[in-house]
Amino acid sequence: MQGREPNARTAARIAPFGQSMPRNGQNAAQHPPASPPASPAAAPRPRRQPRQRTLPALADGLPRPVLARVESLPAGSWTGEHSHPWAQLSYAVEGVLQVHTATGQFMAPPERAIWVPANLPHEVMTAGPAEMRSLYIRVEALAGSPLAQAQGCRVLDISILARELILAVCALPSDYEEHGAPGRLVAVLLDQLAQLPTASLDLPLPTDARLLRLCEALQADPADRRTLAEWGREIGLTERSMVRLFQQQTGLSVGAWRRRLRLLAALGPLESGAKVSSVALGCGYASVSAFISAFCAEFGVTPTQMFMRG
User: Fold this and answer.
1) Are strands 97-100 and 104-108 parallel, antiparallel or unpaired?
2) What sign does the CA torsion over 143, 123, 217, 225 have?
């Protein structure tokens, strides 16, 4: 279950969320993002050398229906694209986790988790330090669960009960007694996971190469203020065609997608303790109140509430 060696496409995606991350097999060199006007304030920052995570060797499969993994990840940790025959729950105790697939990008700030179905190619990364708890789950252990029907990743809101169950299962040995109290604890956890609500912390990506250019450019600069008409001319589509195709392929309007991108790009800096005012301006909002209003409308909580400790 080793991730692939890094290549140009993978290396572009281990940058913090909000920078250009080409997807769907598109290489950044083949489809360079549209270049926004140069800004004297946008001085290049030195890039941190990323660290590749080591995946566990599980050639014989999981030893029990659920295998837990505890990791303290340094900033810039990443796992190259890989898949495995079991499902995975990646839970963020601290920090912000990112999972990237061919169809979208998914983010889990603290008290959220990302569900990855079995056999789905994906990458996992963190821009800053993170405390990650992973559960590897046999497909047969999910029989009857709504999660067994999931075709793609989803972000889950972790309840207090689910959190404590995850932490308890992470304290079990890998060869826990399957038919005793530990096995019953695992069964309760699986029941709870099936009931968790989803969170709108994903960013679906289009398949059209022209629309990908738009997405890559906006990821590189979430504060870009060009209009739809200007973007249409830049990528070679009429405004009407661009709007129609974007909605069809992502389920979001261009405006809604750009708003979610800006807000998702804010999660890492907010979690690391950056001031809301500086994050708001960096994401292209003219005022802190406008940023907080958009944040509440998108996620249902204020920035302070999302990253409240305890």
Assistant:
1) antiparallel
2) positive
- Domains and their CATH numbers in the chain: 59-199 (2.60.120.280), 205-310 (1.10.10.60)
The pLDDT tens digits for 174-229 are 999 999 999 999 999 999 999 999 998 999 999 999 999 999 999 888 878 899 99
- 8 Å CB contact between 79 and 125: yes
Please tell me the distance from the alpha carbon of residue 214 to that of residue 172, in angstroms, as a whole number. Answer: 46
Write out the two tokens for 219: 């990821």
Instruction: Tell me if 106 sits within 8 A of 181, measured CB to CB.
Output: no
pLDDT digits (tens, 9 = 90+) for 244-296: 999 999 999 999 999 999 999 999 899 888 999 999 988 888 899 999 999 99
CA 11 to chain centre: 16
Instruction: Give CA–CA dist 66/257, Å, rounded.
Output: 35
- Strand pairing class (77-82; 51-52): parallel
